[in-house]
Design goal:
Length: about 425
């Protein structure tokens, strides 16, 4: 081939060029800001206006936070330290933290007991919230309510032990008679548990000093501990009751259906604060004379019934969202009603109902602050009562209420984030 012909052939590269870096505007923080904050001129104006509002808020609050006083014995001493400058009196938190968390009458030397119960709560909730953990840990979940009761209230350990035995015997009777019928198993188990509890009530007084902790009455409990106890207890109890009410409302038996309908509609039409006043004043008349049911138990009953009615409606919506073919599939497999609900219908309905259930749980936890209107000293009751009524801290509002906001936000935000993780894990949008 001649040199002239060789020069007319196009050059062919035998190796590839090294990859060039992407433009600065198409990568990193610059790309994110351009696409999310300044995508259009309208978005840019809104971004600038929002940043200006944030700047105004921070300019007003940051000096109050960073100039805050943490060591003082009264509001007057805080003002002397500040000498007219802007700053918060956060010394009330360091001085009264124990009252904010545990109330003002819970024995100081016994603070370790609710703290241990609080730590055990996370261990007990772990196998329920994160189902990848070994199922053997559910034993801890089942034992936690009885251990927590013994730690917080004290008394003989045989009181929660006998109650636990009653539940175990009732469950065994239920399993034994469930094959006959669901109603026979349920009422048989309930009767067996009541018999065990009645017998244990006669035996327990003779063992009251065996493995006993110092007893603490419910009236001595307060602060954020009381809110946590009410929130965890009522949410845990209202979920199964709400499921039962939702299934009862869809029952083909008219009596059961209308009992559930009347209960749900009545409770949903009454404010919670009204039910709390009923628990404080009237509910004691429904118990046997001299039974001495304390206020904490009465409040738990009313809040549980209130939240269970709302959860029932959320779960009913989940049941209605399932196609009819799911029920027909359960019938084609030869499953009876309890088996179909437990194995096919309820798992799908509960998965759909997760956002609504979490919404009610968050609202219920915040509504526990309403108990302060019936003289129960939760965290808001402590702030509005003993702390602000004292001469040392009368006039400190933002610091105390801000602390209450923070502790409630931490719990509610954690619940919300867990629900979003659970929705992604269960892929509720790809049924």
């Amino acid at each position: 081939m001649s040199d002239t012909h060789a020069e007319s052939v196009a050059f062919v590269r035998e190796t590839s060029l090294p990859p060039a870096a992407p433009p600065v505007a198409e990568t990193g923080i610059v790309k994110w800001v351009r696409e999310n904050l300044f995508a259009t001129w309208a978005n840019g104006l809104l971004t600038v206006a929002s940043l200006y509002v944030i700047y105004l808020i921070l300019r007003a609050t940051m000096p109050w936070l960073f100039n805050g006083v943490w060591n003082a014995s009264s509001l007057a001493e805080c003002r002397e330290i500040l000498q007219g400058t802007t700053g918060g009196c956060f010394a009330v938190l360091t001085e009264r933290w124990n009252q904010l968390l545990f109330g003002f009458t819970y024995p100081t030397e016994l603070y370790w007991r609710p703290l241990v119960a609080f730590v055990l709560m996370f261990v007990a909730l772990a196998p329920v919230l994160f189902f990848d953990l070994p199922r053997k840990l559910l034993i801890v979940t089942g034992l936690f309510p009885f251990i927590a009761y013994w730690l917080i209230w004290g008394g003989s350990i045989f009181v929660p032990v006998f109650v636990l035995v009653g539940f175990v015997v009732g469950y065994l009777v239920y399993v034994r008679f469930e094959k006959v019928s669901f109603a026979a198993g349920f009422f048989g188990g309930l009767a067996a548990a009541v018999v065990v509890w009645t017998v244990s009530g006669a035996i327990t007084p003779s063992l009251e000093n065996v493995l006993a902790l110092e007893a603490v009455p419910s009236r001595d409990m307060g602060g954020y501990m009381l809110n946590m106890m009410l929130g965890v207890t009522c949410v845990s109890l209202s979920l199964p009751i709400g499921i039962a009410l939702a299934l009862g409302r869809q029952s083909s038996m008219p009596l059961i259906k209308w009992i559930c309908v009347i209960f749900i509609e009545f409770v949903r039409g009454v404010p919670l604060i009204t039910l709390l006043f009923v628990a404080n004043v009237m509910l004691a008349y429904f118990f046997p004379p001299g039974s001495g049911v304390d206020l904490f138990l009465r409040v738990v009953i009313m809040i549980t019934l209130f939240s269970s009615a709302y959860i029932a409606e959320v779960i009913r919506g989940g049941l209605a969202a399932l196609p009819k073919g799911q029920y027909e599939a359960a019938d084609s497999l030869g499953l009876d009603y309890p088996q179909a609900m437990r194995l096919i219908i309820l798992p799908q309905a509960l998965k759909i109902s997760i956002p609504g259930i979490v919404n009610i749980a968050v609202g219920l936890f915040k509504d526990t602050t309403l108990v302060s209107v019936i003289s129960m000293f939760d965290i808001l009751g402590m702030i509005r009562g003993p702390i602000l009524a004292s001469t040392e801290w009368n006039g400190v509002y933002w610091e105390l209420l801000g602390f209450a906001c923070v502790v409630f936000f931490v719990v509610c935000y954690s619940i919300s984030q867990y629900s979003q993780w659970l929705e992604r894990r269960l892929a509720t949008d790809h049924r």
